[in-house]
Prior knowledge:
Layout: H1 3-23, H2 28-53, H3 65-72, H4 75-102, H5 107-120, H6 122-142
Amino acid sequence: xxxxxxFSTTSSxxxxxxxxxxxxxxxxxxxxxxxxxxxxxxxxxxxxxxxVYFFRVEGGGFGSIAEVxxxxxxxxxLVAGWVHYLxxxxxIGTWIAVEADKRGYNRLLQAPMLVATFMFGPLGLLLFxxxxxxxxxxxxxxx
Length: 143
């Protein structure tokens, strides 16, 4: 598959996961499908891309910004980096959704956290942590 095809396919896969996570009922089987099916497929794709292409990029690595830039000049490695984001952001989004459900957070409260995680990764996680800390502070005040 070409890097463009892998990019497009994995992006569509992740989008399906986000739509299910935000809009569908959170049945255990659905969460399992997102975790093991979609995130698993993204992770496998990432692993294949890394093992096939990462060590072929001369001068690439993680020791300096120049080495990272060199890595990402190679399309298959750039796509691997993108898939890395897709898989981890969806993993964190799923974790947030499950934890928020356990805490009884309304789906309307969850939606901005999940959208922020989809778009900006750690920002959505930060929103969840702030919401959780606020809830804990209010609970402690009442006690």
